[in-house]
């Protein structure tokens, strides 16, 4: 069920919080897309936002979020990419701010991939993310930046699922995410798409080893991108390992990401 929230509500209770390379090339399709932001400045959501001003957790209690969005948290990943080689990605939670071109607030997350040793470029991404009370984490907007210049901005209606903040009560668990996507290119032009993803939690308490250590309590998540026939697109399946209180520790798909270090702040 989709919930439309008024801009004034989100200005008062915006909620808490990355991925591949971007391109500044102009769209090749014929669909210029439609606005993803409502006339009142709100963005449709697949649930209700967590109230950042709500009940504060016990500081002595264990932090169990699968996708921490606490300001100042950082993660470094070693990426092995068949095209761009091996390089590092650093992800930093910057904190809540107004999402550009809306009247809503969300958590801004910045990621940086230094590919200078392999491709000679530095790719960055800004992502505005929000945790919902149903356990989902969604993204409202993302911006791709190459060598310091923004190349495009992508928005969705409703906001697109990014990950999970809480583990489902039982597995297997499945969620279908169908959205309207609008890509706005800084070089000029827009492009509309209608992607559909299916998210599945395959298992709990999975053991996974990364350069940052061995984790024995991960949940294994699968994300499939579907074609128009409802079948999984070739090479468009991703696997994620999420650990309570840590976040993503491993990702497999078009490339492999492995957690090498992290510093997660408690709420």
Automatic annotation (TrEMBL):
Signal peptide: 1-17
Domain of life according to the entry: Bacteria
Region Disordered, annotated ranges: 27-63
UniProt KW Signal keyword: yes
Compositional bias (Polar residues): 27-40
Keyword annotations of the record: Signal
Keyword presence, Nucleotide-binding: no
Coiled-coil annotated spans: none
Name the UniProt record assigns to this protein: Lipoprotein
């Amino acid at each position: 069920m989709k919930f439309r929230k008024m801009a004034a509500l989100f200005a008062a209770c915006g909620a808490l919080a990355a991925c591949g390379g971007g391109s500044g090339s102009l769209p090749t399709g014929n669909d210029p897309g439609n606005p993803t932001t409502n006339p009142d400045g709100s963005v449709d959501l697949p649930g209700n936002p967590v109230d950042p001003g709500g009940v504060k957790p016990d500081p002595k209690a264990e932090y169990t979020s699968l996708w921490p969005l606490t300001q100042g948290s950082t993660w470094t990943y070693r990426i092995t990419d068949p095209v761009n080689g091996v390089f590092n990605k650093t992800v930093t939670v910057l904190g809540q701010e107004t999402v550009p071109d809306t009247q809503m607030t969300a958590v801004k997350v910045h990621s940086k991939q230094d590919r200078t040793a392999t491709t000679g470029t530095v790719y960055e991404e800004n992502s505005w993310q929000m945790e919902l009370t149903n356990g989902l984490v969604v993204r409202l907007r993302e911006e791709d930046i190459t060598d310091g210049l923004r190349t495009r901005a992508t928005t969705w209606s409703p906001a697109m699922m990014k990950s999970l903040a809480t583990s489902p009560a039982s597995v297997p668990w499945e969620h279908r995410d169908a959205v309207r996507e609008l890509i706005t290119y800084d070089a000029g032009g827009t492009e509309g798409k209608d992607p559909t993803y299916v998210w599945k939690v395959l298992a709990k308490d999975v053991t996974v080893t990364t350069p940052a250590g061995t984790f024995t309590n991960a949940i294994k998540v699968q994300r499939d991108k579907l074609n128009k026939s409802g079948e999984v697109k070739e090479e468009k399946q991703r696997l994620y390992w999420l650990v309570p209180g840590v976040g993503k520790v491993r990702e497999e798909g078009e490339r492999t990401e492995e957690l090498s270090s992290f510093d997660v702040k408690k709420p």
